[in-house]
Amino acid sequence: MQVKGAFTALITPFQDHEIQEESFREHIESQIQGGIDGLVPCGTTGESATMSHEEHKRIIGICLDQVRGRVPVLAGTGSNNTREAIELTAFAKQAGADGALLISPYYNKPTQAGVFAHYQAVGQACSLPLIVYNVPGRTGCNILPETMARMHHEIPEVIGVKEASGNINQISEVIEYCGPQFSVLAGDDFVILPMMALGGSGVVSVLSNLLPEKVSALCAACAASDLNQARRLHFELAPLCRAMFLETNPIPVKTALSLIYKTHLEFRLPLVPMNPQNKSRMHELLNSMGLTAG
Fold first, then answer.
1. 83, part of any domain
2. Percent of the chain surpassing pLDDT 90
3. Which residue, 130, 159, 161, 278, is the most exposed by fewest CB within 10 angstroms?
């Protein structure tokens, strides 16, 4: 299995502290109709860290039921507790997910050998295609290219990485060391073009929650070596890419969706609503791009 194209890291709608299933299904459907290549429920963007195991499994189940095989689904099943990651990944396999996306163990700050052992244990227990999620800004631990290559060569289930180090040199080395059959996905929307120019295969995107057709088109242009189209889309999306970092993800993207579609906006603590100044900046940007009424 190779993972290619634009995969949306889905937001999770909440209302009165509960999962808003109808809105979640509607969002999934809009993604598919917008031409997205795949979906990722229960990632960081979905506020998975605030969910119980039962809610986590429910979100994965709803997503798979709504998708019904039309696009691949990579279920977010990561944890800093290896036993917990195994439990969630086993559920994703049983539920019918095409693969799993697992953040590297956070807070524990394992050694590179510990990171390897974590993914090896999940792979051996679950036998499901695994995408490693390397995001040192959140985990406090960077997975080095040499470790990624070792996992690729020694753990058959590890078929790719969502690389969110923001380090183009590191991304280049991962692609070099792991070879063309290994799926290297951008973990940040602003590096889709340079990363795919190096041989990456796509993105796990936050921005595609808003514009699935544009992010999919950018990945398609990169894959087709259409540099002019890819560059045009890259710079068209650049202001929104920056806006997604006005505050901690997923505060900006959920705020933007609420401004565009006038939907209910709710976060789970410790995330809180965007401060008024940043919300005003977001509103002005969306207006300037024709994405919301004045």
1. yes
2. 97
3. 278
How would DSSP label each residue in 23-67? HHHHHHHHHHHTT-SEEETTSGGGTGGG--HHHHHHHHHHHHHHH
Q: Alpha-carbon distance 242 to 223, whole Å?
A: 24
Cα dihedral: 226, 133, 49, 58 (round 10):
70
In a domain, 267, yes or no: no
Tokens of 217: 């088109």
Q: What is the CATH number of the domain that holds 44?
A: 3.20.20.70
Confidence of residue 293 (pLDDT cuts 50, 70, 90): low
For residue 132, the SS3 value is: strand
Q: How would residue 2 be classed by pLDDT, with cut points 50, 70 and 90?
A: confident
Give the catalytic positions in this structure: 133, 162
Query: Can you give the pTM of this predicted structure?
Result: 0.96
Domain count, the chain: 1
Domain ranges, residue 191: 5-224
